[in-house]
Design goal:
9 strands, two-stranded parallel sheet, alpha/beta, 44% helix, TIM Barrel
Length: 278
């Protein structure tokens, strides 16, 4: 190849659009604010948000338990608007503070609040189930008025340890304003990630993205399974993507892994691109 041919070929390649992944334009990348707190220490919020944009994220999800309040919601919303970073939702909703959390989320401009339902193991489980269903039904009306969905997360408190449990819970509540914030990773303790996607179907309205290594968990302890970079553990990501495609999933996926510096966060964003085929 002579120099002229090389230059033409190079120019042609540069003019080609970037490869579009299976979920390009369908899944948007967010992350938990707790992942960026260390890197953002001492920085104005708007500057930290701009850095997150530069790392490859479109959104961020702060916690209602220590990050955002009614008093500082306007500051967070203004920083997001100035930086071009969307506060797509909040995390840390609890049964006794659902209405307050919904209001904070609305002021931030978010469209969802992640809810963790309690499982007091010293009480009858059927009563706990009925209480949870009743409380979520009660809060569904203010959720609708505010335009904020309440999304129940599958967590390690063992309240819902199968996708069928979670599906039944959402169906028992029976509101379009209550769904699932599906954590791809948490369920690996009890089951198979893609099966949760399959069973829950369109009940899953947002995703959390993390990795889990079953071998490491068996050898070093259950929580050690999470100490694995995205794409290098036991999750069958092609199978997860296949099920997400089958249910025609679109929306936000938030990284939920350990905190780190800006280079590390940019690497997390790139790994999300790979495992989700963005």
């Amino acid at each position: 190849m002579n120099r002229r041919t090389f230059l033409i070929s190079t120019a042609t390649m540069a003019a080609l659009p970037a490869r579009a992944g299976q979920f390009s334009g369908k899944i948007r990348k967010s992350l938990k604010w707790s992942m960026a707190q260390k890197a953002a220490q001492g920085m104005p919020l708007v500057d930290a948000f701009k850095k997150l944009r530069a790392c490859g994220f479109e959104g961020v999800e702060p916690s209602l338990m220590g990050h955002v309040t009614l008093e500082n919601a306007a500051e967070w919303a203004a920083a997001g608007k100035a930086a071009g970073l969307i506060i797509d939702g909040t995390v840390g909703g609890r049964a006794n503070t659902l209405e307050a959390g919904l209001e904070i989320t609305r002021r931030l401009g978010g469209d969802s609040m992640l809810v963790v339902l309690e499982y007091p193991q010293d009480k009858p489980v059927q009563r706990t189930w009925k209480d949870a269903v009743a409380r979520m039904k009660e809060a569904a009306s203010p959720a609708e008025k505010l335009g904020v969905r309440m999304l129940v997360e599958n967590v390690w408190n063992t309240f819902t340890i199968s996708a069928f449990d979670m599906a039944r819970l959402i169906d028992d509540i029976g509101s379009a304003w209550v769904g699932v914030h599906l954590d791809i990773g948490n369920q690996m303790r009890w089951g198979v990630a893609e099966h949760w996607v399959e069973v829950l179907g369109n009940r899953s309205m947002k995703l959390d993205v993390k990795e889990y290594d079953l071998d490491k968990a068996m050898k070093e302890g259950m929580r050690k399974g999470f100490d694995t970079p995205l794409g290098e553990g036991s999750i069958n990501w092609p199978a997860v993507r296949a099920e997400l495609a089958r249910i025609q999933f679109t929306g936000w996926a938030a990284a939920e892994v350990k905190a780190g510096d800006w280079d590390y966060l940019a690497d997390v964003a790139r790994r999300m691109d790979k495992v989700l085929d963005l």
